[in-house]
Every structure is written in C-alpha cells, then in structure tokens.
Specification:
CATH topology of the largest domain: Rossmann fold
Structural class: alpha/beta
CATH architecture of the largest domain: 3-Layer(aba) Sandwich
Number of helices: 15
CATH class of the largest domain: Alpha Beta
Shape: elongated
CATH superfamily of the largest domain: Glycogen Phosphorylase B
Helix content: 40-55%
Distance between the termini: 22 Å
Strand content: 15-25%
Strand order of the largest sheet: 3-4-2-1-7-8-9-10
Length: 376
Amino acid sequence: MRVALICETFLPDVNGVTTTLCRILEHLEREGHPALLFAPAGAPESYAGTPIIPLGGVPFPLYPELRLTPPQPGVAAQLAAFRPDIVHLAGPAVFGAIAPSVVEQLRLPLISSYHTDFGAYTRHYGLGVTQGLVNFYLRWVHNRTRLTLCPSSYTLNQLRAEGFRRLRVWGRGVDTERFHPQHRSTAWRDELGIAPHETVLLYVGRIAREKRVELLPEALRGLDHVRLVMVGDGPARAELEASTQGMPIHFLGYCKGQALATAYASSDIFVFPSDTDTFGQVIQEAMASGLAVVGARSGGTIDLVQPNVTGRIFEPGIATDLRAQLRYLLAYPDRQWAMGQAGRAAAERRSWSSVIGELLGYYQHVISRSTRQARV
C-alpha cells in the first residue's frame, strides 16, 4: 500500500497532530508501506524513511503551530509521480480547499482526519460570530472526502449534528514505555523545591485561552500543600505568569523526551481544563504515567476518563467545580493512587500498533471500495 499524507503542522512543532503523524510514518516504515508526506516548510527532509515535500505557508494567528498553506504548484505532479493508493488529509485548513480537487483529478481515493475544533477556538478569541462560517468551511472540505476519521465519539456526534457525513471514530495510541510510572524522580521534585508532603498538579499543553488555563490558578486557591507545574508555552503564558506571582506555580516551558516523561511520572494528579480538545493525547500520556486525571466534561476527555475509576470530571469552565474534584482526590489519596493504577491499565490497552492497524484497515476499506467503483 502506497500512502500520501498532507498536513499543516509537523516537526519541529510539538502537538498531538505531530505525534500522531510520527507514529503513522514509523508504523508504515515497519510494515513496508511506502509513504510521502507534504508538510509545512521547516520540517525535516524526511522522517522514518518517508520523504517530506515542503509546503510554503504562514502561521495561523490563533494557533502559530499551524501553518496556513495556500494552494501552490507542484503538488499534483508530485502526487502523480509517487502514485499513491490513497491520500490522507490530516487536519485540513486552507490547503484543504484545493486538495480534494487535486486528488480527484488524479482519480485517487481521499480520506481526512479531524484534529482541531477551530470553530470552538473562535469563541475564546472574541470571534464567536465567525464560528458558523468556520464550521461551514470545514464541513465543505471534509464532506468532499470519502471518510472523515474523528478522534472521539463526542467529536463524531458533534460533527454529525453539524452536517458532516461519512464519519468514523479513530482514536489515538500512547507509548506506554516512554510514559511509565518508573520514571518518577525525587530529584526532579527537589529541584523545584517540592516538599515530600506536597501534592503536584501537572498541566501539559499549549498555554492559551482556548485551553482554559485561566481556571487552574483559580482552582488552586484554597488548596493546602499543593503546587501546580505547567509544561508548555503559548500566547497566554506571559500574562498568566504575571497574574500568578507569589502562587505555588512553576512554568517549565516545553519539555520533550525523557524530561517530559519524568515530569509526568514525578507529579501526582493531572489537570486538563480544556473544553475544545477533540481528543487530548496528553491525558493518555498522564494515564500511562500512573496519574489520576481531572478533566472537563467535554471532547475527548469523555472517552478517555472514566469517572471514579481513572479520574474525576468537572463542569467545563467552572473553576469551583474543578477545585472540588481536586479537593476530593487530595482528601482520599488511596483513591487517587487506585485511579492512577487504573489509568495505567487502560493506557496499556491502547498501543500505537493496534490503533494504527485500525487506520490501515480504514485505508484498505476505502481503497477496495474505490477499486470496485472504478470497475463499475
């Protein structure tokens, strides 16, 4: 099977879409499936044996990690030369307007995956009046593909209500060797000045309005012997740091590799206030690291966190409810520990190998159906 993928965010950017694409390319290489990736300029020349074709573009103002890649010459010729059996449009934005036409001209089957809820983002940047227009555009793009893969059942139901068609759920895997409780480090806690009796709350992700990070310091107020560690960066970081001076909050910036695995395993509770994430890969990484999770009742969190088994759920946007759920776990450390163990067990059932095997099954289904239609 020959697979071409088109994306608008990739290395060196660190986010859930990039992680997913890296795992897909690694799996395709192991299984002997030739691949070609179209990615924004600045990406490496290749990854896991896959050549990368650079696309010119500019950063999306609301989400600089995403590059808007307008229609540009050469894509059709490179696709034709590669002769893929299927084309996968991963998280289409501007380039999504032209990609279906290009692929259709070459008579290739095209599928898409939905990663980012840009419509919901508009509300957090004072552009809520444009949400309907954004959803209209995304629906137009996705409905021109033969299949749209959704990261969670919540997202699928949301898109179906918006008029998106041909939807299937395709979740995400997690690296249970990289993210593991064995990476817990007393030295890491000592470096941050964390006392043995203190509980560490961890947030990993983009520090931006759409992630509802402003809820975290508010929820922290009134909790004793608790520190918050924030891993990540973004446009709201400077303002948040300035407004939380004197509070027990540590901003570590982006962490990768072993440093990230250590941060997860050395913390005690993972907090995820976002109500715009379609999946929440960091939740799975925290669960694999043995942490109980407190997340908003929205998006992929609903699929990932089982209330009172792997964590606690709070009402989106309500800091007092977030504080109440944290206080519960602080009052019952044995239950907190049990939830972390249950989360680890759940993560072990979501290997990348099985998840991407499912993706290849979707590829093969669409290819076979396209072949039958061509014969007819």
